[in-house]
Amino acid sequence: MTSPAIQWYPGHIAKAERALMEQLKRVDVVLEVRDARIPLTTRHPQTDQWIGNKEKVLVLNRVDMIPTVAQQRWTSWFQQQGEQPYFTNAQHGKGIAAVSQAAQAAGDKMNQRRRDRGMLPRPVRAVVIGFPNVGKSALINRLLNKRVVESARRPGVTRQLRWIRISDQLDLLDAPGVLPSLLKDQEAALKLAICDDIGEAAYDNQRVAAALIDLLKHLQAKIPEAIPGKPLEERYSLDSAHLTGESYLAALADSRHQGDIERTARQLLNDFRKGILGAIALEMPL
Fold this sequence. Notes:
Layout: H1 11-24, E1 29-35, H2 47-51, E2 55-61, H3 68-80, E3 85-88, H4 96-116, E4 124-130, H5 136-144, E5 162-167, E6 170-174, H6 186-194, H7 205-222, H8 231-236, H9 245-256, H10 261-273
Parallel strand pairs: 1-2, 1-4, 2-3, 4-6
Antiparallel strand pairs: 5-6
């Protein structure tokens, strides 16, 4: 199946990146939100450069969509890298209190440095950054305990930068999702497309659905703990053992949708994105 490489860089993301660079100068703490299903792929390659020596809180959202063993393994892996990950399900409020406490604790360090220099403490200024659709706006709404930021399970909802007062001690900047200007790694681009974390990218649903099937088969064979059970067989009653992703998609289209491969691809991607195929980690630590 030939289709163009997945690529993007819509104008609003370029504009958002410039605005974010400007606002980061005024920020004390960075909350970096990633997708728990693909925590390495949803790390922006310039994050460390942007953050510099500011305090950072790493949030891995959609913990409900990965197996418990994946959460445990990622926790150990990140701790070995010197980072403490905070797992959340922002849609339902799980893990939010710990993120709020971590942001406040990081801000307290900043205010202690101010006191040490003879300056008065002030409210902590934090920013939430991450790829489109990883759950930044849902996280902010949970931190506030009310819906002030438009949130949807689709990329590109947040377009403007704006400050929101969380408490007397914490101000939060909601930033649009920022993607790398160029993603040379097509395997990573496919994972972003599978998880709907790309924004306004042009990609081929059939190619992405076939890639998801191939990836699920690879995980079952190589890292079975990432993918409990046999989600494709259990959901669609169609064995994938001897089929490529492309041929499985065609067979599924024949059995389900009168050969309509596009409709079948959309259905399969939707089933994965809504968790209907079960808890699946598309990446695990090496």
